[in-house]
Amino acid sequence: MISVRSVGLLAMLWFFLILLPEQGSSSNEHVRIAKHTQGVSRSSYLSPGGEFHISWSWLSLPEDRIMALTFDDGPVERDLEISALLQHNDIEATFFFIGQKVEQSPGIVKKVSAAHHEIGYHSYRHQKLSWIPAVDLKEDFRLGKSALAELGIVPNWFRPPYGLFNAKVIKTARSEGLETILWTIDPKDWTGVSPRTITKRVVAMFHPGAVLLFHSNHSATLQALPQIIEAARAGNYRLVSLSEWHRTIQAAHCRHDKSYCSPTVTAKNVQTTIDTVQKMDVTPMVSSLEIAMVTQPTVIKRHSHPLNRKRGRHKTAIPMRAPAAVSQENHVRPLPFL
After folding, report:
1. Are 75 and 101 in contact (CB under 8 A)?
2. Percentages helix, strand, coil for the chain, rounded to the nearest 5?
3. Nearest residue to 133 (alpha-carbon basis) of 209, 34, 242, 21
């Protein structure tokens, strides 16, 4: 006769062997969470699954002083106020919207997008995606992308809710054409802190290449933005969207690595360098000779784009153009690179 204790043990065994694997929690899908402790030293989760690394010291030119401005958990009415403030200051940002809210407030999404801001994906229901089965995860992306597609929007960036992710989430996002991005500065505006505290926390951690995390469904965030924008400009930083951030990081990478820079990236960043130095009221961070070095690319040979490397080689080398390297070889913690 089977005892009650034996039945309990069998039930527990059945749960761990049957139910848990169904949730996709195998050993190679360890759940990770982005660090809420901020700063440059906490950047290891910025680009989960990134194949390339970049050192902060590579961001040495005036146009490298960029910070990506991102807002989560919309669309909400306050997004329109934030968008208007940014537009008044000639700033473009990236808004990570929740699919279900997109369906409920399509008008807000259209207005934010029309203001030239970038729209990213933040899940369909804002649930912990690493905890759900693979089939439900695929459905989440399908529903969310469909909601955005109805408005003519195709997102390029994905941020997992709560910063929770595993290999399954990253792989699914990539299969949907989305790159996962987290953050380097989190003022924890979602905890209900004051605008002054938000500003103080963010400004204290400014650094070239930063990714700032805000939540537009909190009023204190909007109230803190004017002071943050003012402080960024005082430090000669540009607040940009994630795509502009990525182009700048990409240019710094190929400049340092003496590898292929696409003509679009090279030309755009050369012009930004000239414009930035001309507009500065302070002593430029680089000399005119260094700027001339960047504006005069040298011809090198590479078999493939450094940001899209594949196994194997082409039969013949492809000549490509890249600017001469202008960098500092300081040892710093690497930043996962897209």
Report:
1. yes
2. 45, 15, 40
3. 21
- C-alpha to C-alpha distance for 232 and 299, rounded to whole angstroms: 36
Catalytic residue among 73, 79, 186, 215: 215
Residue 334 falls inside a structural domain: no
> pLDDT value at position 257?
75
> CA nearest 216: which of 115, 53, 69?
69
**Which one of 64, 72, 73, 79 is the catalytic residue?**
72
CATH number at residue 220: 3.20.20.370
pLDDT at residue 321, rounded to an integer: 32
Q: For residue 102, is pLDDT > 50?
A: yes
- 109 found inside a domain: yes
Q: Does 72 qualify as catalytic in the annotation?
A: yes
Number of other CB atoms surrounding residue 24 within 10 Å: 20
- What letter does residue 205 receive in the DSSP assignment? T
Classify burial at 74, counting beta carbons within 10 Å of its beta carbon; exposed 0-12, middle 13-18, buried 19 or more.
Answer: buried
Residue 180 lies in a domain: yes
Q: How confident is the model at residue 326 (pLDDT cuts 50, 70, 90)?
A: very low
How many CA atoms, within 13 angstroms, populate the side-chain half-sphere of residue 260?
Answer: 14
Give the pLDDT of residue 290: 38
Task: Clarify whether 215 is annotated catalytic.
Answer: yes
Answer whether 77's CB lies under 8 Å from 251's CB: no
Domain span including residue 130: 32-48+61-242
Mean pLDDT computed over 59-65: 91
Q: What pLDDT, on the 0 to 100 scale, is given for residue 254? A: 82
Structural domains counted in the chain: 1
Terminal-to-terminal C-alpha distance of the chain:
60
Radius of gyration from C-alpha coordinates of the chain: 22
